[in-house]
Amino acid sequence: MNIESFFPKDIRKALSKEPPGSWMTAVPNGCIRLNSGYPAKELVPSKEIKEAVSRLLYEEQDLPLHYLGSPRMDNLKGQIQERLASRGMNISEEELLITAGACQAIDLIARILLDETAVVFVEAPTYMEALEVFQNYTNQIITIPIDKDGMQTAELEKMLMERKNEGLPNPRLLYTIPTFQNPTGTTLSQQRREHIMQLAKEYDFLILEDDAYGELAFRESPQTLKSLDTESRVLHVGSLSKVVAPGMRIGWVAAACQFITSLYWFKKDLDHPFSQSIMSAYLELVNFDQRTAVLAEKYEKKATALLNALTKHFPDSASWYHAAGGYFVWVKVPGVNTSEMLNQALKAGVAYVPGQYFFLNQEDGTEYLRLSFSYADVGEIERGVEILGEVIQSYLRK
Ligand SMILES: Cc1ncc(COP(=O)(O)O)c(C=O)c1O
C-alpha cells in the first residue's frame, strides 16, 4: 500500500519540506544553552502553580478535568482582558479567543485566511515556526527587511507600490512581531507603527501582530498595533509562555468578532480546559504587575551581561542590536558561516541558533546567529560568550 497516495497534494508538498523544528539544535549535556527561547528555570513559578492546582482541585474537584472545564476558564478570559486593557487594548469577551499557545493562534489564523492565492508579507528575519505555518498554506511569501527600529516600513511601502504598478495583488496578511522581535530583539518605532497602520488602510490588508514578548519590557512596552487599530485590521496574538510557563500553552487572539467566530469554528474545543483553569487559579494568586517587574529586572541583568560579554569577546567586525526587552540578541559575524561553525561551538560547550533558519531565503542568514539570554544564568552567559568568541577566532583563522 502506498500511504503517501492517500495524502492530498498540499499535504504531500508540506511533508516534502524539512520536518518542523529541524532548526532546533540537539544540545549535548553540559553545554551552555544560549540557543533556547525558554524562560529561566527559576522564573517558572512551579511552586505557585502547584498551589494553584491544589486550590483548583480542592474547590472544584472533578470539574476542571471534564471537556467543559471549570468556570475559571471564563475568568481566564476576564484576566487576559484586564492585562490587554492595561496596555491600551479594550477587547470585549466576544473579541477574544483563548488558544493552546500563540502557535495554535497563528495556525488557526493561517487556516481561516490563507490559501494558495494569498500573499503574505513577513519580516526578514522572522520567527521560524510562523514561517513553517504560512508555508503550509501558500508559496507567496514576501519578505521585508528589518533594521534596529524593526521592519523597514519604507521598504514595505516601496514593495506595495511596485506590486500595485505591476498589477499584482495586495498582500492579504502582514505578519509582524513588532515588540522585542524573535530573533532580532528589535522593537518597531512609533513612527513605523503608525506608518504600517496607514499602509494597511491604503493597500487594504490585515495584520497579524505577534506580541509573544510584549510583556517583557525592561522599561516600558510600546503601544501595540492593536491599540492603534481603528478598523479591525489587526489580529493581535499573545501568550503566557514567556511570562509564566511555556508548557501550559496558553495564548490568545484578540480581533473583531467575525474573525473570532471563524477561528472558533476550527479550534472547536481542541484546547486544554485543565491548563486554562490552572492558569486562571494561578493568576488569582499572583500580583502580575509585580511579577513582570521582577522578570524585567532579572532579564535586563542577563541581557546586559550578554551585551558586555559580546563587546569583550567578539571580534571588532561583529555587530548586534540592543534589545529593550524580550529574550534575544541578534549578532552578525562577517566571514563566519554560523551553520558550519555550530558543531565546533557545541564541542566547545556552547549552543546558539544559526541565522539561516529565520529567513525564507536561508542564505541571507549565513553570517548571523541568535543568542538568547533568557535561559542561562549570568555566569553561564559570560562563559558561553567567551567560549563562542574563541570558537569564532579559531574559525576565522582557518
Ligand atoms: C514570536 C513568537 N511567537 C510565538 C511563539 C510561541 O508561543 P506559544 O508558546 O504561546 O505557542 C514564540 C515562541 O518562541 C515566539 O518566539
UniProtKB/TrEMBL annotation:
Sorted alphabetically, the keyword list is: Aminotransferase, Pyridoxal phosphate, Transferase
GO biological process: one example = alpha-amino acid metabolic process
Lineage, top-rank taxon, reads Bacteria
Task: List the SUPFAM superfamilies.
Answer: PLP-dependent transferases (SSF53383)
Cofactor entry: pyridoxal 5'-phosphate
Q: Which residue intervals define the domain Aminotransferase class I/classII large in the entry?
A: 31-386
What single Pfam family name could you report for this chain, choosing any that match? Answer: Aminotran_1_2
Entry GO MF terms: pyridoxal phosphate binding; transaminase activity
This chain's protein is named PLP-dependent aminotransferase family protein
What organism does this protein naturally occur in?
A: Cytobacillus horneckiae
